[in-house]
């Protein structure tokens, strides 16, 4: 299976399917259909069948999908059948909220380091770990072999932080700063900016 | 101009252009080209020209775009040439972080009400406003005429909250709860779930 051959738009839907399947499993369900899964995620049954069939034949005609089996497959495809350590840079309100967020662990992620360059924050404790000096970031991230990072710093410093993260070996960056990050080929960035999402909706009001 | 005729994928890129233009303006720039704007947002110049031309002829051959003019046009198209009052439901870590977020005001948004159903939180002050009892949410949002809301409550209560918001007249919901919300025709929902974004990237690791 060649990663480059599957369109990223399909990859982007797999975590949504996995999340919905997890909720079904939490409710004690063992099997589902593409129709039922589709109703839960607002995507057509045909699209779901087409997306999933890119990776193999995971469902059975008539009986549908085994939820635990499909979850295992999706976790393996998305490589969240393991835990990814995360470095977070920027210990402001958003950084604190994410550091304490309970929703990462059972989805494959674990924040293990938080950095900031504000002397009044360095040394402060958040839920069991200590905010570290951003000056030592590159070395610490590199020696820990961390590949995934989150930026929750102001827009003015986000690009510089991204450059350092990449220098440290990070390959995937979730960026909360309201700025588009420019990164070299082979580095993935996802952006979260609530104002962007809100403006996309006010158009229709 | 018929809103239904412009694909939502194009609408989704306009706030990204607006954000980049704002940063250019902040740096004192007055004009830009589709090439330069594209370099700033990671989108091709041709795509940008095509997207913007959906709404009229805003650039000039040879001289490019006037940044203040294009910003005014985009703000008007996205209806953020005015302020939208926002109701936020769920005063946990994320709710607190968003309540204090400084990046909404100059992009058309203003959180004016925060609700929670936890008696230990009701009455608590966040930056000048007071957390209100979620029991009175529908009436308060309706009388204030609020059309935009954010949900930062747990997944288990998010759908019920969304139903109430819609009952109160809300048309646009930014949902931070890790669950897909089912809403009637005419209601817009955008979802923010960091684990979804992270899983989309680990696929490539």
Structure, described:
Two copies of one chain form a homodimer. Chain A is elongated, with a radius of gyration of 19 Å. In chain A, the strands form two sheets. A seven-stranded mixed β-sheet of chain A has the order 6-7-5-4-8-9-10. A three-stranded antiparallel β-sheet of chain A has the order 1-3-2. The model of chain A has no long low-confidence stretch (mean pLDDT about 95). Chain A contains eight helices and ten strands. Chain A is of the alpha/beta class and about 200 residues long. In chain A, about 40% of the residues lie in helices and about 20% in strands. In chain A, strand 4, helix 5 (about 95-100) and strand 5 form a beta-alpha-beta unit. Chain A has helices at about 10-25, 35-40, 45-55, 65-75, 95-100, 135-145, 155-165, 195-200; strands spanning about 30, 60, 65, 85-90, 110-115, 125, 130-135, 150, 170-175, 190. Chains A and B meet through helix 1, helix 2, helix 5 and helix 8 of A and helix 1, helix 2, helix 5 and helix 8 of B.
- What's the main sheet of chain A like? 7 strands, mixed
Strand order of the largest sheet of chain A: 6-7-5-4-8-9-10
Find the biggest chain interface.
Answer: A-B, 60 and 60 residues
The count of β-strands of chain A is 10
Multimerization status: homodimer
List low-pLDDT spans of chain A: none
Shape label of chain A: elongated
Average pLDDT for all residues of chain A: 94
The computed structural class of chain A is alpha/beta
Q: What share of the residues of chain A does DSSP label as strand, in percent?
A: 15-25%
By DSSP (H or I, 4+ residues per run), the number of helices of chain A equals 8
Helix fraction of chain A, binned, reads 40-55%
SSE series of chain A: HEHHEEHEHEEEHEHEEH
Distance between the termini of chain A: 44 Å
Our Rg estimate of chain A from Cα atoms comes to: 19 Å
């Amino acid at each position: 299976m060649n990663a480059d051959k599957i369109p990223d738009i399909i990859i982007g839907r797999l975590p949504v399917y996995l999340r919905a399947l997890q909720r079904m499993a939490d409710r004690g369900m063992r099997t589902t259909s593409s129709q039922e899964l589709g109703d839960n995620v607002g995507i057509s049954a045909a699209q779901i069948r087409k997306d999933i069939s890119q990776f193999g034949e995971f469902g059975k005609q008539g009986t549908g999908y085994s939820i635990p089996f499909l979850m295992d497959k999706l976790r393996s495809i998305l490589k969240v059948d393991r835990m990814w350590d995360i470095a977070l840079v920027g210990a402001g309100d958003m950084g604190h909220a994410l550091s304490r967020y309970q929703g990462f662990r059972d989805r494959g992620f674990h924040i293990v380091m938080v950095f900031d360059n504000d002397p009044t924050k360095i040394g402060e404790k958040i839920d069991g770990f200590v905010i570290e000096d951003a000056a030592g970031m590159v070395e610490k991230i590199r020696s820990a072999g961390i590949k995934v990072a989150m930026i929750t710093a102001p827009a003015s410093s986000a690009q510089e932080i991204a450059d350092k993260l990449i220098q440290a070996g990070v390959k995937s960056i979730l960026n909360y700063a309201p700025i588009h990050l420019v990164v070299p080929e082979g580095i993935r960035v996802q952006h979260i900016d609530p104002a962007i999402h809100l403006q996309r909706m006010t158009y229709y009001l």
